[in-house]
């Protein structure tokens, strides 16, 4: 995929995932949140819990799942820590890391608590 096509496919996948979270009663509070540590695709709230969501899009869920590296998980965890620093309860805020796999047909496979910080 060319860079432009990849970018637009990624944005579309993020939109599909955001709509899914909203349809299940969660509030998406940030999209492509950036800080010095990196970027988090989506951040949602479920009551007091903050959910950090990494969206991976590919032809298949299996292909999408192969594209999340340990290094990337570390950057996401570091960015999440910086985000939580701005929350009233800080690092004590209940939180989790989800990975949303989106295939070429727009189907979502959601991996809740996919990794720990």
- Low-confidence spans: pLDDT under 50, at least 5 residues? none
CATH topology: Trna Endonuclease, Chain: A, domain 1
Helix content: 25-40%
| Main pleated sheet | 5 strands, mixed
How are the strands ordered across the major sheet?
1-2-3-4-5
Number of helical segments with 4 or more residues: 3
User: What is the 3D shape?
Assistant: globular
CATH-level-2 architecture? 3-Layer(aba) Sandwich
Strand content: 25-35%
Mean pLDDT: 92
Number of domains: 1
- Radius of gyration over all CA atoms, rounded: 14 Å
Order of helices and strands: HEEEHHEE
Q: What gap, in angstroms, lies between the N and C termini? A: 31 Å
CATH hierarchy class name: Alpha Beta
Number of strands: 5
Structural class: alpha+beta
Q: What this model shows, in words?
A:
By secondary structure, this protein is an alpha+beta fold. Strand 1 and strand 2 form a beta hairpin. 23% of the residues are buried. It is built from three helices and five strands, in the order αβββααββ. The protein has one domain (3-111): Trna Endonuclease, Chain: A, domain 1. It has helices at 3-23, 61-65, 70-84; strands spanning 27-35, 38-46, 49-57, 95-102, 108-111. The chain is 35% helix and 33% strand.
């Amino acid at each position: 995929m060319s860079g432009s096509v990849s970018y637009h496919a990624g944005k579309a996948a993020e939109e599909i995932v955001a709509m899914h979270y909203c349809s299940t009663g969660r509030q998406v509070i940030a999209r492509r949140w950036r800080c010095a540590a990196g970027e988090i695709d989506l951040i949602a709230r479920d009551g007091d819990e903050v959910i950090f969501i990494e969206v991976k899009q590919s032809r298949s869920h299996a292909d999408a799942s192969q594209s999340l590296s340990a290094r990337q998980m570390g950057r996401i965890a570091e960015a999440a820590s910086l985000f939580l620093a701005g929350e009233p309860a800080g690092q004590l805020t209940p939180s989790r890391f989800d990975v949303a796999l989106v295939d070429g047909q727009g189907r979502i496979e959601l991996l809740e608590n996919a990794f720990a910080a």
